[in-house]
Amino acid sequence: MTPERCLLLVGATDETVAKAKELGLDVLLLQHPTKVNTDQQRLADHVEVVDYTRWDLVEPIAERLRDTPGFAAAVSITEPGLENAARINDLFALGGTGHEVTRRLRDKAVMREHLAGLDPDDVHARPLRERADLDAFGERHGYPFIVKPTDATASIGVHRLDGPADADRVWAEVRRLAGTRTDRVSTLLLLQDFLMEEYLDGPEYSVESFSSAGRHVVIAVTEKFTDPAHFAELGHAVPARLGAAVEERVRGAVIAFLDRIGIKDGVCHTEIRIDAHGPRVIESHNRIAGDAITDLVHSVYGIDTVKLALGAPFGLADELPDRPEAHGGAAVRSVVGRPGDIVESVDGVAEAEALDEVLAVRISAKPGETVRPLRDNWDRLGLVAATGEDTTAAIRRGAELIGTVVKVRLKDPDGRPGLAEAAPVSDRTVMSA
């Protein structure tokens, strides 16, 4: 291994490790005991099995690997690994986004406090520490408002209060969730603190960007479809159906946000809503998007944000145009079922994956499982990502595939059969004002 071409990956999927190798990099992988597998051990040049969310365990391993065989950069594109990858880069002065900036993005309360110091008119937010805080925030800033964990993902633990009568219910949920783990598969993130935040009323979008030496390129604006009650993500579509003037406002708002938050390099995934005041940032992450959005972006723009994130520290990222050109459309449709139904079988995944217009099929539902009420992203049964001649056609095609090709068969408590469906999404016309 050559230190100058050696990457220390803090957490990764099989795809991430494979793409790092495709770039010609030597890969040292820190992988969580619940995530490691034989494919990663085969692909990576060296694997350390460790709870990479714990700095007390990561620091001595990083110091040892820095000595032998050596590495030029630490990178994570998975949420639980971001802070310790930043700490490693700070420890050895390797450049990239440091821990201070990473923490601003990882902790939503820290982000809001930082932004309020720069702009008192930014989204109003306060830490939630006791039941009375809910009443005080509502009286000062009005209803509705949002309560959410400061450092979770996948819409877990997000609640909307429409009036004082909701406070007891939400406080009970906060107390129930505090101290629990967010990822039902590997429990990497711990819910601890909660934030109260002004509700932004308007359509939601995400923005995929890449920064290099302080130059920010908005690669794609993605239309997001969310459950109105708990904000679980029900679908995504690229490119977002925005008029040129609105898209330019979104682009300007996100670039200004990245400057204020201190991002200089790397990929970011920023979530916004467009309300009466224009585009406003909900939250942001210095990593790639989830939910197969990277597949949508690659299909429509020809830009692989995973390889951008991995290759940039080694000078392997081509300079991007200010406004990448879209070719066609692509969309993710989530698979959902009736709460209480039992999953009987899953069929058609291989058949769907063989279709030219299909980008990804990810079905998490397993036979024998009970369909849960839709509270967050983990309650969905899966997703299908497909292309189309434009955004609207891709949204429609994704829904057609669910139930006709990809079939998640269900039965209700009385034994009556059924099929999972594509989660309904709202019809949107091009936003031009």
From TrEMBL:
Query: Keyword Cell wall biogenesis/degradation: yes or no?
Result: no
| Start and end residues of each ATP-grasp domain | 112-314
Leader sequence segment: none
Coiled-coil stretches are none
Give any GO molecular function from the UniProt entry.
metal ion binding
InterPro entries attached to this UniProt entry: ATP-dep_AA_Ligase, ATP-grasp, ATP_grasp_subdomain_1, LAL_C2
Q: Where is this region: Disordered?
A: 413-433
* Keyword Lipid metabolism (UniProt): no
The entry's keywords: ATP-binding, Ligase, Nucleotide-binding
Q: Pfam families in the record, alphabetically?
A: ATP-grasp_4, LAL_C2
Protein's UniProt name = ATP-grasp domain-containing protein
Give the organism, scientific name: Streptomyces cupreus
